[in-house]
Amino acid sequence: MRGTSTTRRPLAVALTYVVLLTGAVLALAPYALSLLTSLKQPVQLARQATLTWPAPWTGENYAAILGGQFTLIPALVVTVQVVAVLLVGQLVCSVLAAYAFARVEFPGRQVLFGGYLTTMMVPQAVTVVPLYVMFAQAGLRNTFWGIVLPTLFGSPFAVYLLREYFRGIPTDLEDAARIDGCGTLRILRHVVVPLSRPVLATLAVITVVSQWNNFLWPLIITAGPTWQTLTVATANLQGQYNGNWTLVTAATTLAMAPLVVLFLLVQKHVTESIALTGFR
C-alpha cells in the first residue's frame, strides 16, 4: 500500500502542475497576442497569419498613441486623477464605515448593515439612469466630479471586506489603547489600520483595477475629449480605426500595463490577505 501511495503522489503533483500550466497559458494567451500584434506593422498583420512574430519589430503604434496623431495621454492623465481620488475616498470612507459596523454599538446596526449589503445585488445598469438625471440637473455632466462622486464614498463590498477583517482583530489591543487614553479615532489610526495593511492593500488593488477599467459611467456622464477616461478613449479609437488593429492593441496593452505593475508590487500583501481572511 505504501508503494502505491508513493507512486500516486508524484503523478498527482504532475497532473496538478499540468492543469495549472494549461490554465495559465489560456489566461495569458490573449494578452501575449495583444502585445505581439501591437509590435507589428499594419501591412504584416494584414498579409501574414495572426500568430507570426513581428518582422520587423516596431514601436510606431506606441509612438502614435503616446504623442502622435492618436495620442491617449490626456485620457491617461484624467484616468490617473480619477483613480487617485477614488482610491483615497474609498479607503477612508470604507475604513470608517467598516469600523463603525464592526465595533461601535448603536441601535439597528445589524439591520442597517444588512440593508446596505443588499445594494450589492442591484446591477449598475439599474442605477445609471437615475444617477444621470440627478447629476445632469446638478450641472455635473461632463465634469471631473461627475465621474467620481457616485463611487467616492466607499462601496458595500469594501465595507463588508474590512468589517470582517476588523472583527478578527483582538479587542484586547483596543482595550489597552483605551486605558492609555486613546479615543476611537486614535485607536483606528494607530492600532486597527496598521494591523490591517494586507487587507487594505487588497482593497486598494481591487479599487484601482475596478475604477481603471470602469467604462459605463464615464461613457454616459462625459461628452467630448476633455474628461474622457482611458477606457472611453480606447473604445472611441477602436470605433474610428477598426481596421487598424495594431493601433488598437497598442492602446489596450498600454491601458493594461499599469495594472500588471501594480499587482506585481503588492502581490505579497494580496496573498497574505487572502490567507488571513479566506479561511477564518
TrEMBL record:
UniProt xrefs under InterPro entries: MetI-like (IPR000515), MetI-like_sf (IPR035906)
Residues in ABC transmembrane type-1 domain copies: 76-266
Statement: the UniProt record of this protein carries the keyword Zinc: no
Family: Belongs to the binding-protein-dependent transport system permease family.
Record-given protein name: Carbohydrate ABC transporter permease
Residue spans crossing the bilayer: 12-33, 72-99, 111-132, 144-162, 245-266
Pfam families xrefs: BPD_transp_1
PANTHER family associated with the record: ABC TRANSPORTER PERMEASE PROTEIN MG189-RELATED, ABC TRANSPORTER PERMEASE PROTEIN MG189-RELATED-RELATED
PROSITE patterns reported in the protein's UniProt record: ABC_TM1 (PS50928)
Signal peptide: none
Keywords, ordered alphabetically: Cell membrane, Membrane, Transmembrane, Transmembrane helix, Transport
Membrane protein topology class: Multi-pass membrane protein
Organism (species): Kineococcus gynurae
Compartments it resides in: Cell membrane
